[in-house]
Amino acid sequence: MTTEAEPVAANTLAPPDPGIDAAISELAASLDAEDQPTFLIAEQIEVPLPQGSRTVLVSDLHLPVSATDSSTAVADDIATVLGEWSGPGAFVIAGDGFEMLAGPPEVGRILDAHPQFTQAVCEFAAGDDHVVIVLSGNHDGQLAWDGDAVHVLEHRLGVHHFALSCDLLVDTDHGTQKVRVVHGNQSDPYNAFEDPWSPVDTPFGHHIVRTLLPQLETRQ
């Protein structure tokens, strides 16, 4: 007696559900968004300054979370200059004003440790025809993407503009003159960011400051 084999059923998997595909795409997009900063400072800005303006430009203050004799002296000098100011003008911190690489990246604590600096900049920022500009450098490159840190500086110092670089458009008797201000680390291969707005971009110089130098100090 012979029997016929029953035919094998064809693959009857249900077609892809477009709703599931959409949900997966949305989840992937949200995960990517969580890995990216929600705040980015401008790459370059232009700031017009009226005729007769003065500009005080400083950089590499490296103010730390705990005041030192050096940082206190710097804060005192800046407080004196800004406190004696008259007329329109700009105060520009052209990168590395805040030590956020070799120490804790907490600008609130830095400002607390240098109250004379904090008060003087805040009072200057509130003056008529005054502008305060902060550029990020390599030791405070975190400012390029850290909205919380930027908010602290806006709230406590009255900073008007943040950027990677700035063109000061100075009104003179010979027309508008442009003065470009940059920190300069992007011209240094050891301290240049490939993507200044990426929290995971760490130039070679970062590893020297955070890893090698502390090890050398412990051996002394």
**Topology pattern, helix = H, strand = E:** HEEHEHHEHEEH
CATH class (first level) name: Alpha Beta
How many individual helices?
A: 6
* Relative strand content: 15-25%
Low-confidence stretches: 1-14
CATH-level-2 architecture: 4-Layer Sandwich
Gross geometry: globular
Count of structural domains = 1
Given helix and strand content, the structural type is alpha/beta
How many beta strands in the DSSP annotation?
A: 6
Radius of gyration: 26 Å
Q: What is the oligomeric state here?
A: single chain
Largest sheet composition: 6 strands, mixed
- Overall average pLDDT: 88
Cα distance, first to last residue? Answer: 96 Å
CATH topology: Purple Acid Phosphatase, chain A, domain 2
Helix fraction by DSSP (H/I, runs of at least 4): 25-40%
Care to describe what's here?
This protein is an alpha/beta fold. It has a single domain (39-219), classed as 4-Layer Sandwich (Purple Acid Phosphatase, chain A, domain 2), CATH 3.60.21. It has 6 helices and 6 strands, in the order αββαβααβαββα. It has helices at residues 18-34, 69-83, 107-113, 115-125, 147-157, 204-219, and strands at 42-49, 54-58, 89-94, 130-135, 161-172, 175-182. Strands 1, 2, 3, 4, 5 and 6 form a 6-stranded mixed β-sheet that branches. A hairpin with a 2-residue loop joins strand 5 (161-172) and strand 6 (175-182). The termini are far apart.
